[in-house]
Automatic annotation (TrEMBL):
SUPFAM superfamilies: Bet v1-like, ISP domain. This is Iron-sulfur cluster-binding protein, Rieske family. Residues 25-126 form the Rieske domain. Residues 356-368 have a biased composition (Low complexity). It comes from the Bacteria.
Length: 368
């Protein structure tokens, strides 16, 4: 079956803009959440992403399959079912579907029974597996954008540590928080060794290349004569719309990938890498310690500030941005370009029409 309905994209409203950014890849789950072997391989994965509930599993070849979690028969949650020979089985009546969306078994009707056309699943998102993550394409057209990822970013492996959590914060606010470099002396004042004296962002550089935003900056002590003394340096790069790379020092860096769950919540995945020069075991322990400190003491401040900000589904027009917010301004500019392109496409082809293609599947050659 090659016919597949696309997920309908919202048309821009003069009063409200969509939270989801169209024509983009989003990370939806770690590959390790969907093992290819062992007892867990028979258990599908149910997730809420991009405003919808999905079920994921692996077919007999080990490729990731994905479809809406609601059973086409009578709406039961397929994520509560099981995987049998690479097919997803409904927990309610035992109907089964292949990775291609074809209904292949109706136990109540017997072998060889005619399968009603409505039982075949046409809406099958395009998914891809790379960098230790499973990605979903959100758009009307075939994937045109590259994954929001930097090749230098750390991935899950024997020397790194990973963490996932859910923020009760809109995707827009979460992405703003992840790109903010000048909040540290205030939002994290309890951790600031300079007691707020290193508040000036100088030097600060932000450049945009296509859909990549690059920041280099330093928090600096400002003397009475106006001169500055940089005390801590940052490198923070954004792969639009949802990928972040941070370099804290020559030996410590991190990658962050985010996905909207719905309009109010965001799924956050992070990976830390610490190169101690003392071997893989010490690197792993150091990365775990760094990750624990980050999400136990640092990120709760960002999360609290972002959750209290209004409006949650914000645009650049809701802000009074300054020079040090250049990356946030650039991200919103890219966001508007995607939304306008989707709006123009919807108006040109209204009503939205269905497209078709096969599920794309590729596996990363990087170690996991």
């Amino acid at each position: 079956m090659n016919d597949r309905l696309r997920t309908a994209l919202p048309v821009l409203s003069p009063r409200r803009e969509p939270v989801l950014i169209p024509e983009a890849w989003y990370p939806i789950a770690p590959s390790t959440d969907l093992p290819a072997r062992g007892r867990r391989a028979t258990k599908p994965l149910g997730i809420m992403r991009l405003g919808r509930r999905w079920v994921l599993w692996r077919d007999e070849a080990g490729a990731v399959a994905c479809m809406p979690a609601a059973c086409p028969h009578r709406g039961a949650d397929l994520a509560q079912g099981r995987v049998r020979q690479g097919e997803i089985e409904c927990p309610y009546h035992g109907f089964r579907w292949s990775a291609g969306g074809e209904c292949v078994a109706l136990p109540c009707e017997g072998r060889g029974a005619r399968v009603p056309a409505k039982l075949h699943v046409r809406e099958r998102p395009i998914v891809r597996e790379a960098h230790g993550l499973i990605w979903m394409w959100y758009g009307e057209r075939e994937p045109t954008a590259q994954l929001p990822w930097f090749e230098r970013s750390p991935v899950e492996g024997r020397r790194t540590a990973t963490h996932t959590e859910v923020w009760e914060v809109s995707f827009t606010r979460t992405m703003e928080a992840m790109q903010d470099l000048h909040h540290f002396p205030f939002a994290h004042h309890g951790l600031d060794p300079w007691r707020g004296k290193a508040a000036r962002l100088d030097p600060y550089e932000c450049r945009v290349e296509g859909e990549r935003i690059y920041q280099k900056a330093a928090l600096a002590l400002e003397r009475e004569d106006g001169s500055t003394e940089p005390v801590v340096h940052f490198q923070l790069d954004c792969a639009f719309p949802s990928g972040i790379y941070l370099k804290f020092s020559p030996r410590v860096d991190a990658s962050v990938a985010l996905c909207p769950i719905d309009e109010q919540r965001t799924w956050v995945w992070a990976c830390y890498r610490v190169e101690t020069g003392l071997g893989a075991v010490i690197d792993k322990l150091s990365a775990r310690l760094s990750m624990w400190f980050e999400f136990a003491f640092v990120q709760p401040d960002d999360r609290r500030m972002s959750a209290s900000a209004e409006p949650q589904a914000c645009t650049a027009a809701d802000h009074a941005l300054v020079r040090s917010d250049a990356a946030i301004a650039a991200w919103h500019k890219l966001r508007r370009a995607h939304l306008h392109a989707a709006s123009a496409s919807a108006q040109e082809h209204s009503p939205l029409t269905a497209g078709s293609s096969d599920i794309e599947q590729s596996k990363s050659s990087q170690s996991m």
